[in-house]
C-alpha cells in the first residue's frame, strides 16, 4: 500500500491523482496530512500542490465529463466525507478508462454515489442561496454567518457576486472559520480571529446600521401576515425548511432582532 | 413612523396572500451595469409559510381600498376591514431593502381598484419603473394587471415587469356573473390576448435584434379559485387547458377557496379550504405539461372529478392496466414516464443508464423510485410481481394500505 499524503486542498488532491497515474501506483490511499497516521507497512509519498499537474488532471476530466459531471467531482471534494479521496480517485479511474459517457452509468455504484453527493451539495448550495440573511453593518457592509454541513461557500460565491454587485458583503462560515468578502470589485477570503463578528450573537446593536432593526421587524411582520392559518401544515413547512436552518432565519425568531 | 409602516405592511400583505402565485423563475433579466439584483434562472424560495407555500417575492397590495365587490375577496367594498395604502416610495424602499438582505427575489405587486382601473394601474407601473430606472434593480417583478386598464398602460407595464398576470378568477362566465358582477370574462381575456400577442411579437424581435428590450420575459400567468363555485374538476381543467393553448400562459394557478365571510352564494365560513382538491389539480396540470398526458385521458365525461384517494397518474394507470407492465429496459422514455411512482428524474436516469447494462430492481431502488407503487407496473430483472395475477382493485388496495401505514395521514406531495 502506498499513502499519498496531501495538504487537503483541491489542487493538492488533483496533484495526488496525477502522481498516482505517473507512478502507476495500484494499491493506494490518498490522505490529507491532517488525518495521516504513519503505518509501518505502507510507503509514504508526500504531495505538494502543483498547478501544472493538477491542471492536467482537470483538463483530462473536462474532455470526458459534462459541466455537471465536473461540478459533481468538485462537490465530492467539498462534501468533506471521510472517503472522498477514494471515491474521487475511483471515479477518475472509471472516467479515464472509458470512452463512453461513463458519468451516466448510474448502474455503477461509484458513478451513482458521485451523482448523489453532487445532488446533495447542489441542494445545500440552493438552500444557502435561499437562507442566507444579511444584516447591514454601520459601515454599510451586509454581513451574514452560516454554519453549513458541507463546505458550501465555494459553490455559492458566483451567485452572490452577480446578484449583489453593488453592495459590499461578507458571508462567514463559523464552523470552518473563514468567509468571503466582496468589496464591490472582487472577492477575497477572510478570517477573523478576534473580531466580535466571528462569534454568533456577539455583535452589539451598535455594530449594525440604525435602520437594521426596522427591516428585520418588517420582515417578521410580513412573514406572519402571509400565513393562512386555515391551511396550516407544519409537517410540510418543516420539510421545506428543516429545523436545523431555522437559526439563520429572522422570520423564525419573532420578536427578537437577530445578531449574526 | 415605523409602527405605521409595519401596520400597513401587515394589512397589505394579509390582503395579498390569497393570490397563490409566488414563482420567480423563468426570467432572462440579468444584472446590468453592476446594479442590484439578477432575475435569470430558477427562482429561489427564501422561506416557506406555515402552510408550506413558497415565499419568494414580497407579495403585497398597493392598496386594499376597492370600488368593486367580488364576493370571494376579503378586499371587497362591502367587507368591514381595515384599509391602507402604500406610497410608491414606500413600496420601492421595502423591495430594495428586503432584496439587499436576501429575504426575497423581488416584488409581486397587485392592488384593489382605487378610483378607477387606469388610475390604479398607473401607480403599479410607476413602482416598477422607479425600481428599474432609478435604482437599476434587476430582481424579479410580477405585476398583476388591473382588469379594465388601458392597453397603453399594459404595454408600459410589460417593459418593466418580468411577469404579468390577469386573474381569470373563476372557471366559468356564469360563476363570474354570480360572484363578481362587475367583472366579465371578455374584460379578463382581452388583456390576456393582448399580452400574449405582444410577447410573441417581442420574442420575434429578439430573434432578429438581440438587443431588443425584454417584454415580460417570464411570461404571463393566471389564477383560478376552486371551491367557491360549482364547476367539476373537468370544467376547471378544460378552462386551464384552453388558457394554456390560446394564450401561451406559463402557469395557471389553482387556489383553494378560503372562506373569508358569510355569504349565501359561497361555502359556509366554517368550511375548510379544499387543499386536497387543489393539490390534485396541480398534479393534473403537471401531467399535462411535463408528462405528455392529454386532458381527455385523465378527465372526461365518465370521470369528471379527480379521485381524492389516489393521485391522477395512479388513477389513470389503474384504468389502463392493459398498457402495463412496462419493460424499463426496452420501453420508450414516454411510456416509462407514465409508470406511477416514477418521476422525470428517474425516467431520465433509467434511459441514460440502460445503455451500459440491464437496469434491475435494485438499481431502481437506489435511483429513488417509489417501488411500493411502481413495482406493480413495470418489468425488470429482480421483479417478483406478475401483473396478470393482480386485479385493479387488488393493486389499489395494496398501494393504499401501504400509503396509510407509512404516513398515518395523507401527505400533500405532488406525487405522494
Ligand atoms: S376587484 Fe380585486 S380587490 Fe377588488 S374586490 Fe374584486 S378581487 Fe377584490
List the helices and strands and how they pair.
The complex is a heterodimer of chains A (260) and B (416).
Chain A lengths: L1 E5 L3 H13 L5 E5 L10 E4 L4 H14 L2 H12 L5 H14 L11 H23 L3 E2 L5 E5 L6 H11 L5 E5 L4 E5 L4 E4 L21 H14 L8 H7 L20
Chain B lengths: L1 H13 L32 E2 L5 E2 L1 E5 L26 H13 L5 E5 L6 H17 L6 E5 L6 H10 L2 E3 L7 H7 L5 H24 L11 E7 L6 H15 L3 E6 L18 H16 L4 H4 L13 H8 L6 E2 L5 H4 L7 H10 L7 H7 L3 H4 L3 E2 L12 H16 L9
Parallel strand pairs in B: 3-4, 4-5, 5-6, 6-7, 7-8, 9-10
Antiparallel strand pairs in B: 1-2
The complex binds iron/sulfur cluster (SF4).
Explain the overall architecture:
The complex is a heterodimer of chains A (260) and B (416). Chain A has 260 residues and is α/β, with parallel strands linked by helices. Chain A has two domains: 2-124, no CATH class; 132-252, no CATH class. In chain A, 42% of the residues lie in helices and 13% in strands. Chain A contains eight helices and eight strands; from the N terminus they run βαββααααββαβββαα. Chain A has a five-stranded mixed β-sheet, with helices on one face. Chain A has a three-stranded parallel β-sheet with strand order 2-1-3. The mean pLDDT of chain A is 90. With 416 residues, chain B is an alpha/beta fold. Chain B folds into two domains: 3-274, TIM Barrel (Alpha-Beta Barrel); 312-407, no CATH class. In chain B, helix 7 (233-247) links the parallel strand 7 and strand 8 (251-256). Chains A and B meet through helix 5, strand 4, helix 7 and helix 8 of A and helix 1, strand 1, strand 2, helix 2 and helix 12 of B. Bound molecules: iron/sulfur cluster. Iron/sulfur cluster binds next to loops of chain B.
What are its keywords?
heterodimer, A: 260 residues, alpha/beta, 3-stranded parallel beta sheet, 42% helix, 13% strand, B: 416 residues, TIM Barrel, 2 domains, 6-stranded parallel beta sheet, two-stranded antiparallel ribbon
Amino acid at each position: 500500500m502506498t499513502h499519498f499524503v496531501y495538504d487537503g486542498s483541491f489542487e493538492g488532491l488533483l496533484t495526488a491523482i496525477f502522481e498516482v497515474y505517473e507512478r502507476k501506483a495500484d494499491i493506494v490511499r490518498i490522505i490529507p496530512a491532517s488525518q495521516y497516521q504513519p503505518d509501518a507497512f505502507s510507503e509514504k509519498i508526500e504531495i505538494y500542490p502543483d498547478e501544472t499537474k493538477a491542471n492536467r488532471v482537470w483538463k483530462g476530466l473536462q474532455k470526458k465529463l459534462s459541466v455537471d459531471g465536473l461540478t459533481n467531482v468538485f462537490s465530492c471534494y467539498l462534501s468533506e466525507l471521510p472517503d472522498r479521496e477514494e471515491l474521487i480517485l475511483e471515479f477518475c479511474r472509471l472516467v479515464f478508462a472509458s470512452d463512453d459517457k461513463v458519468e451516466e452509468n448510474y448502474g455503477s455504484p461509484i458513478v451513482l454515489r458521485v451523482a448523489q453527493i453532487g445532488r446533495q451539495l447542489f441542494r445545500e448550495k440552493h438552500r444557502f442561496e435561499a437562507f442566507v440573511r444579511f444584516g447591514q453593518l454601520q459601515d454599510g457592509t451586509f454581513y451574514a454567518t452560516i454554519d453549513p454541513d458541507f463546505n458550501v461557500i465555494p459553490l455559492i460565491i458566483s451567485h452572490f457576486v452577480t446578484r449583489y454587485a453593488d453592495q459590499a458583503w461578507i458571508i462567514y462560515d463559523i464552523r470552518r472559520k473563514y468567509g468571503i468578502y466582496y468589496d464591490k470589485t472582487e472577492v477575497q477570503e477572510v478570517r477573523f480571529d478576534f473580531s466580535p463578528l466571528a462569534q454568533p450573537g456577539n455583535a452589539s446593536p451598535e455594530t449594525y446600521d440604525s435602520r437594521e432593526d426596522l427591516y428585520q421587524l418588517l420582515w417578521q411582520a410580513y412573514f406572519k401576515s402571509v400565513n393562512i392559518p386555515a391551511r396550516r401544515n407544519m409537517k410540510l413547512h418543516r420539510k421545506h425548511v428543516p429545523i436545523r436552518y431555522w437559526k439563520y432565519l429572522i422570520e423564525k425568531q419573532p420578536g427578537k432582532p437577530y445578531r449574526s | 413612523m415605523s409602527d405605521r409602516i409595519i401596520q400597513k405592511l401587515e394589512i397589505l400583505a394579509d390582503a395579498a396572500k390569497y393570490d397563490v402565485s409566488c414563482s420567480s423563475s423563468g426570467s432572462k433579466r440579468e444584472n446590468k451595469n453592476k446594479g442590484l439584483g439578477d432575475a435569470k434562472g430558477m427562482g429561489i424560495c427564501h422561506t416557506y409559510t406555515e402552510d408550506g407555500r413558497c415565499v419568494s417575492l414580497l407579495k403585497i397590495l398597493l392598496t386594499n381600498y376597492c370600488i368593486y365587490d367580488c364576493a370571494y375577496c376579503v378586499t371587497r367594498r362591502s367587507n368591514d376591514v381595515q384599509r391602507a395604502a402604500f406610497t410608491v416610495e414606500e413600496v420601492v424602499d421595502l423591495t430594495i431593502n428586503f432584496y439587499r438582505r436576501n429575504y426575497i427575489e423581488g416584488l409581486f405587486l397587485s392592488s384593489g381598484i382605487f378610483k378607477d382601473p387606469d388610475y390604479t394601474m398607473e401607480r403599479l407601473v410607476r413602482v416598477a419603473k422607479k425600481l428599474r430606472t432609478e435604482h437599476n434593480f434587476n430582481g424579479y417583478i410580477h405585476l398583476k394587471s388591473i382588469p379594465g386598464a388601458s392597453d397603453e398602460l399594459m404595454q408600459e407595464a410589460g417593459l418593466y415587469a418580468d411577469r404579468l398576470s390577469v386573474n381569470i378568477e373563476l372557471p366559468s362566465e356564469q360563476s363570474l356573473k354570480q360572484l363578481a358582477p362587475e367583472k366579465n370574462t371578455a374584460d379578463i381575456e382581452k388583456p390576456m390576448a393582448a399580452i400574449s400577442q405582444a410577447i410573441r411579437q417581442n420574442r420575434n424581435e429578439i430573434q432578429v435584434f438581440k438587443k431588443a428590450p425584454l417584454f415580460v420575459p417570464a411570461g404571463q400567468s393566471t389564477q383560478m379559485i376552486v371551491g367557491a363555485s360549482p364547476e367539476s374538476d373537468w370544467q376547471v381543467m378544460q378552462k386551464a387547458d384552453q388558457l394554456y393553448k390560446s394564450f401561451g400562459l406559463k402557469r395557471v394557478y389553482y387556489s383553494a377557496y378560503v372562506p373569508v365571510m358569510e355569504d349565501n352564494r359561497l361555502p359556509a365560513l366554517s368550511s375548510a379550504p379544499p387543499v386536497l382538491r387543489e393539490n390534485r389539480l396541480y398534479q393534473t396540470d403537471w401531467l399535462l405539461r411535463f408528462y405528455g398526458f392529454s386532458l381527455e385521458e385523465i378527465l372526461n365525461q365518465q370521470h369528471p372529478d379527480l379521485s381524492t384517494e389516489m393521485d391522477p397518474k395512479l388513477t389513470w394507470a389503474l384504468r389502463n392496466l392493459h398498457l402495463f407492465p412496462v419493460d424499463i429496459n426496452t420501453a420508450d422514455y414516454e411510456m416509462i414516464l407514465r409508470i406511477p411512482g416514477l418521476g422525470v428524474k428517474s425516467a431520465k436516469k433509467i434511459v441514460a443508464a440502460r445503455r451500459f447494462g440491464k437496469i434491475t430492481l435494485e438499481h431502481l431502488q437506489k435511483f429513488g423510485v417509489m417501488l411500493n407503487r411502481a413495482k406493480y407496473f413495470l418489468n425488470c430483472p429482480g421483479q417478483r410481481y406478475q401483473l396478470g395475477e393482480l386485479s385493479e382493485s387488488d393493486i389499489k388496495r395494496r398501494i393504499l394500505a401501504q400509503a396509510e401505514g407509512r404516513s398515518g395521514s395523507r401527505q400533500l406531495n405532488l406525487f405522494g
